[in-house]
Amino acid sequence: MIQLKSKAEIEILRENAELINEFLGELIRAAQPGVSTAELDQLAESLMAKAGVTSAFKGYRGFPASICASINEEIVHGIPSPDRVLREGDLLSVDTGFARQGLYADKGDTVVVGTPTEETAELIGVAREALWRGIDQARHGRRVGDISHAIGSHVAERGYRAVRRFVGHGIGREMHEDPQIPNEGEPGRGPKLKAGMVVAIEPMVWKRDPHDDGTDEEWVADDDWTVLTPNGQRSAHVEEMVLITKGKPEVLTATDKSEGWS
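Predicted structure:
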């Protein structure tokens, strides 16, 4: 069942969004060559403890950490480890979430450790462009398929692929609520969007292999969590929490409120 949020809940979600922005900013600044993903997870736990919030990830279906740290061909759900040490040029996706005052926050971003190449800059750029095209469709009266189509069509036009098995979602009293928001879809299909809904939109993309006939799929590693690209391509994952209003979508987790809008 899709849950609309009250004015009081929306205010808490705004506060949660500001806080998770601070957390993710700290984690990204700490992501330097020589730092392990376990150290980043320890930093996240320290930030959460200091703020008095509860990790949304740790213990969720047995997940052992407070962040997902996915490197290069790992798309999402990478498990932090002291053995995964960042190197110059690595592509790192960090995803984290917490609960505060009965409501959740969830955000992810992908950065290059050190200096980006043209290839990695383009990959992240395509993911972010797709994200904002999806956000632009997150309006009262439209449908989930409008978001999905905006993301998937842009990714395909740029010569990239979007993850199919893992999707965006509603968020609020639970970390994952209805509706599910795929990264591909048909416009005009799916649940209708209503003012008061809060959703997490999260494209996950990789460069399409020239020999991919459209059937290549992401796969899950033996740890039952880490999602990888089909042929070792690097990937990017970006995620924002969005409040649907009667007017323009309000991107709760945007660090720059003018970002993405023309």
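Summary: The longest helix spans residues 7-30.
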